[in-house]
Hints:
The protein has two domains: 23-158, Response regulator (Rossmann fold, 3-Layer(aba) Sandwich); 170-320, 2-Layer Sandwich (Alpha-Beta Plaits), CATH 3.30.70.270. Helix 8 (214-227) packs across helix 9. It is built from ten helices and twelve strands. It is 46% helix and 19% strand. The chain has helices spanning 31-43, 54-63, 80-89, 107-115, 128-160, 170-187, 201-208, 214-227, 251-267, 296-312, and strands spanning 23-27, 47-51, 68-71, 98-102, 120-123, 191-198, 233-236, 241-247, 269-272, 275-278, 281-287, 318-320. The protein is an alpha/beta fold. The strands form three sheets. A five-stranded parallel sheet has the order 2-1-3-4-5, with helices on both faces. It has a five-stranded mixed sheet with strand order 7-8-6-11-12, sandwiched between helices. It has a two-stranded antiparallel ribbon with strand order 9-10. The protein binds magnesium ion (MG). Magnesium ion (MG) is lined by residues 29-30, 72, 74-75.
Amino acid sequence: xxxxxxxxxxxxxxxxxxxxxxxxxxxxxxxxxxxxxxxxxxxxxxxxxxxxxxxxxxxxxxxxxxxxxxxxxxxxxxxxxxxxxxxxxxxxxxxxxxxxxxxxxxxxxxxxxxxxxxxxxxxxxxxxxxxxxxxxxxxxxxxxxxxxxxxxxxxxxxxxxxxxxxxxxxxxxxxxxxxxxxxxxxxxxxxxxxxxxxxxxxxxxxxxxxxxxxxxxxxxxxxxxxxxxxxxxxxxxxxxxxxxxxxxxxxxxxxxxxxxxxxxxxxxxxxxxxxxxxxxxxxxxxxxxxxxxxxxxxxxxxxxxxxxxxxxxxxxxxxxx
Length: 321
Ligand SMILES: [Mg+2]
């Protein structure tokens, strides 16, 4: 067994394009056949590597998932059918297309291979231009599926995220809060919430000019993300208003966290077109009360009332309900 080595990757770039060459892994235990396929693919502009057996093929595919795998079926150890199934179970290679290239020519073999999820099936001895066309078609399909998956996950993220800051938007934040409350009741675990509002936002807007404080809001989101704990959820609640869900947190711990956030914002130097600016934030904290069993809105209203007191008490401070 030898480790698969990739050729063509650094040296070959598509004529006129910046696109990297597609990577095709060949899993083939017959060295002569493997090298022949590799040469054919390289001539067609692909980066190719040969794994000389199923174990090598598995580790190579997992280490750096290729764009396509050409796979022999009859191999010692694990056969191609099993290897293909194994790769489908792995997160990293779930969507890596496989073409079987095999001497097994019976219809039942072909059907079995395609049923297992192979995108194509080529019988040896194969005709070279046909193999290259099939490779090209499989890669075209892979590229459009990748694009669809990317667009889908972008859409899903958009529906939940505030477009300016990337934080949870109000709707998503409220959903999270409802879930967190249900969980806290079931676990008899305290849950707290912070409401934060940038102080003197009108002056910040004036400082940032036509960009209207968007930069400050983005930087504020960054400070918040870095200061809260991993289990906390940060949302943009309104214009310059942010909120944090703090699971497993009683009111003392919430005030402690709020104070840390307040200090982090005060210490941060906000960059803008006119230079740098110090910004402060006022914070209100409230803990969910399972006895009163009020909902998410009531919890936020109490945090908001505490925030109002923080404003009234001179801003740049923390108050709790
Ligand atoms: Mg074989």
